[in-house]
Write a structure and sequence with these properties.
Two copies of one chain form a homodimer. By secondary structure, chain A is α/β, with parallel strands linked by helices. Chain A folds into three domains: 168 residues, NAD(P)-binding Rossmann-like Domain (Rossmann fold, 3-Layer(aba) Sandwich); 161 residues, Dihydrodipicolinate Reductase, domain 2 (2-Layer Sandwich), CATH 3.30.360; 85 residues, ACT domain (Alpha-Beta Plaits, 2-Layer Sandwich), CATH 3.30.70. The first copy, chain A, contains 13 helices and 18 strands. The longest helix of chain A is centred in the N-terminal third of the chain and has 21 residues. Chain A is elongated and about 80 Å long. The N and C termini of chain A lie far apart (51 Å). At the A-B interface, helix 1, helix 5, strand 12 and helix 11 of A face helix 1, helix 5, strand 12 and helix 11 of B. Strand 12 of chain A pairs antiparallel with strand 12 of chain B, so a sheet runs across the interface.
């Protein structure tokens, strides 16, 4: 049986998962591929730690150039992460005519243009299914299964750490800081949780989803990004009263030739399929002009789920090598020559519903002054909640608006914060009430 | 730009959808493919009805052989349905070296072996994404995205009509017959609903899912099949009391080298993602040894959703033609040479939980006699509900069991039906309480 040689760079959690999956499913994969995938070399600085898997003698090396320089290796799996050495090694491997499989969203959302262009020049493939949604084959769905569709909108829960924290806060209560600490103890959050809780990781992934859906090159810096640090139990509870659930969503919408690209805590209807995606699970909900609403759900991280996607990319590349179809699908689906700039919509131009929470003096006329400011900015009120009474004291007043312009909303917030009755910074959270579903 | 010619046979609902999608997304598809898909001929007996789409003069013909005999047509889209003319035309097209895209689950689950074998001989591809789950790219996920996994289990809601009826009965109440009639009026059910409500269509689709997941050839006749005609409002309500929801599920499980293949009304936990799949939506929930739990959700039928999948298959075949990679993936993922028989588990050997409803005399000792029979068959009781009191009259008694052997359960049911206190045939519905999820 034909053999195809793979070199793996980065023997951490996902790298170990790739070794495990190749070992336990090797025979099955051969029945599906008609070739044997041989893990010829694994490179990592750390060649001594026991990872619970056994490699044949001589496979584990400390120097990645052993892989890059080996003409017998067809596919390089890059699992170092980050945009430093990972970038250099990826470019070197492509330069040598090797195909790439990677889980590196930071690398591809930042340097995708350079990497994909070089890959096109050298006639090699770059698979990156594992970079968004872990084991969920969502990039393949977008690139192939939905290739006949204009994608109207995408809504993703694509960071397991943030979703774990928000689910826990909703289901069991607790302050953000405490739940984060718990998540860190449980291994669901890293010691430095910045990438996850501040939405940066989600923005990296959204950039990749957008680049595939719309055939463009944006980076995470083009994505408006807010994290979940300011989410408060109070807002989770008020959301429930409105029948809404707070999720950290990656949102892309294509409207009138402009694309919205944003990551922020979002209130969505609690009965929507995305609202029930709990814990470390991820899901991407999309609307295509032909297919209507579709959703892809699964584990967005973890050793073997992520390895499932990396090995699927390896199998895909092997199927292309074996059949002579290398390059059959461009990394972003759209052919390089057809990739174009898309105009991104400024967040100020958003026209959506908002949740607003004020801490105000409990006195007659307060609602009148706040709604007066909102009205002056063309913001109509959908409903109001004020549960507490503390005559003369400060109470929470919550307003859900009808559709309003974000520019107007921000101006209104600034004015309301100047009012004497306002005792605290105004909290506002965006609401998505339909999520592209027509039903 | 290179042109690839397609011939469409069957200009019904889905055929019209294919024309619409190719017309509105043609430019976009060319950017993703680097070739132009040309719909050269459409064949249908009815060449006069206005379907709301315009074809260039001469494209619509009444004779399918015009397509079969045209050497310039590379891909034949078969959308006639059924296993008669569809089979003949498909085989003829393959014989002439044409690739096939089809939505025909009946054809492929019945004659897949013959069709796929001929396709392998002739070196052509057979795409059938639209045959399961409408627009949801679930076959691609199974064949490619999850190709590194042993599939432990699959649970599918893959008949929109049955799901519409069950959702309606649960959410709004009503008798099966009345809701079916409403579904027929709304266009969600056909005049003859046999295929949908008796589970036959679901069994066709399950056979295809199993053939891909396990590299085998079973037909729908190998699938144990029960429909939803006997589902009663009472059972829906009692299920809710147990926190369960009734769905018509296609179930496959691989346990100890045997495969369970069954379609029947199933009670599942109401908080499970599948339980919230409502109305005409479909979803397939799977568990793979590497990926863990994944779910694919979307519209399982309809003109454009189904066309989305058909056109995705056309694009896939075109990408293979264009790159020189024809035959890169076998229709069932497993290569023909590696396809083998799997041993199916008899339904009598099932070891699961059951819901049982009895109509019994309301008198002391009834529960004792019933539980005595159950106990004699090694069936333990998980919980019991008897709400009504009608001393001397007949009341509903509901029992949820722990895991039990179906063989024993059936024997117990037969004995209980002979008891004098039993006034009606015993109703039993299978329960799946974990659905492969480990969380």
């Amino acid at each position: 049986m034909e053999k195809i040689n793979v070199g793996l760079i980065g023997f951490g959690t996902v790298g170990t998962g790739v070794v495990k999956v190749l070992q336990k499913s090797g025979a099955l994969i051969s029945e599906r591929l008609g070739a044997e995938i041989v893990l010829k070399r694994v490179a990592d600085h750390d060649t001594t730690t026991d990872r619970g898997v056994t490699l044949p003698d001589g496979v584990l090396v400390s120097d990645a150039s052993v892989i890059i320089d080996d003409p017998e290796i067809d596919i390089v799996v890059e699992l170092i992460g980050g945009t430093g050495a990972a970038k250099e090694l990826t470019l070197q491997a492509i330069e040598k005519g090797k195909h790439i499989a990677t889980a590196n969203k930071a690398l591809l959302s930042t340097h995708g243009k350079e990497i994909f262009s070089l890959a096109a020049d050298k006639g090699v493939e770059v698979g990156f299914e594992a970079s968004v949604g872990g084991g969920i084959p969502v990039l393949k769905a977008l690139r192939e299964g939905l290739a006949a569709n204009h994608i109207d909108s995408m809504y993703g829960i694509i960071n397991g750490t943030a979703n774990y924290i928000l689910s826990k806060m909703k289901n069991e209560g607790g302050k953000f800081e405490d739940v984060l600490k718990l998540a860190q103890e449980m291994g669901y959050a890293e010691a430095d949780p910045t990438y996850d809780v501040d939405g940066i990781d989600t923005a990296h992934k959204l950039a990749l989803l957008i680049n595939i859906a719309y055939g463009t090159y944006i980076t995470h810096e083009d994505v408006y990004t807010e994290g979940i640090r300011s989410i408060n139990q109070l807002d989770i509870d008020f959301a429930s009263e409105f029948g809404l659930t707070i999720k950290l969503l990656a949102i892309a919408k294509s409207i009138d030739g402009k694309v919205e690209a944003r990551v922020h805590p979002t209130m969505i209807p609690s009965e929507h399929p995305l609202a029930t995606v709990d814990g470390a699970y991820n899901a991407v909900f999309m609307h295509g002009d032909a297919v209507g609403s579709v959703m892809f759900y699964g584990l967005g991280a973890g050793m073997e789920p992520t390895a499932s996607a990396v090995v699927a990319d390896i199998i895909d590349i092997c199927r292309d090598i074996k059949s002579g179809g290398v390059g059959r699908t461009a990394p972003l689906s759209t052919l390089p020559a057809a990739i174009k700039e898309v105009e991104l919509k400024a967040t100020e131009e958003l026209d959506i519903q908002y949740y607003m929470r004020f801490l105000v003096t409990d006195s007659p006329g307060v609602l009148a002054s706040i709604s007066g400011v909102l009205g002056a900015h063309n913001i109509s009120i959908y409903s109001v909640i004020q549960h507490e009474r503390k005559v003369g004291g400060a109470v929470a007043l919550v307003i859900r608006t009808h559709h309003a312009m974000e520019r107007e909303l921000r101006a209104a917030v600034a004015e309301i914060e100047e009012l004497e009755v306002t005792k605290e910074k105004v909290v506002y959270i965006r609401i998505e009430e339909t999520l592209g579903a027509s039903e």
